[in-house]
What does this fold into?
Amino acid sequence: MSRPTGRVLTLLELLQSGGTRTMRELADRLGVDGRTVRRYVDQLIDLDVPVESVRGRYGGYRLAPGYRLPPLMLGDDEAIAVLLGLVAGRRAGLTTATATASETAAAKIRRVLPERLARRLDTVLASLAFTEPPGEFATPDSGVLLTLADAVHHRRPVSVRYTDRAGRRSERTLHPYGLVAHEGRWYVTGTDPGIGEERTLRLDRVTDARTLPGSFEAPAGPDPAQRVLSGFATAAYRHEVTLRIHGTVEQIRARLPASVARVTDPACAAGADQATERWLVVELRAERLDWLPPVLASLDRPFTIERPDELRDLVIALADRLATHACGTASR
It folds into this structure.
């Protein structure tokens, strides 16, 4: 490919990325003068690419709004970013529809790349290792995801068919606040107007979603991600645990994140220094308690257990075992 032709294609790539590009910016990126940029623009116009001239201090060139470009062109860095994003998204569970969708998309991109770049990308992918095995995730339906996203954006109520973890099916109305991806799963959070309570639903359990007439106002307060994490921490489980831990919120969150526990300051001091250690109330719910004593030990902070008594017994038993092991090691 001759250098002028290559520069014309580079110009098209720059304009394809959106917005108005100034003459100086285009000249610098292409390594030519302004007169040559205008000549390249004329060549694109001759190829029926509608390049518009924008006048004024911040003027330059842009593509006509709504124009659909011919075959997508990706630079080396863009192709690497797209393919690595597909690989990472598949392993993290951030895919929709079928599990093979990202694989077929990657194959299509790989097939149209120049052989030189394709070989380099194959080398990157063959050399890439992950510290954790790929997860097995249930993927949401693309139509459900797009319908809910549109409802969130336009603040429209939706009717969803949902199957809960016990296998019970229901149809309910939801005022969706936002979509959240968390640990390989997609969630929608919002209010069920029928009962006036917040709900967090797994998207892979939603079999149908329909937009309803009307609109709603988004509530003030935490953002959708914080609402989802708070929902995890307060979900109905076998044990309800209340602790008092002396430390900072940051110290506690290092071992008990927002998806596990709720941390509150009983003093509720306005403008209190978050770095100051004080007694904080920590509440969580759990199906089992045996994982909590090691977590509390790893915090290395003073704490008291308000409930349940079973947890207190487990902590004492762990302390006895640690003391026994330590004494046994020292006597050898």
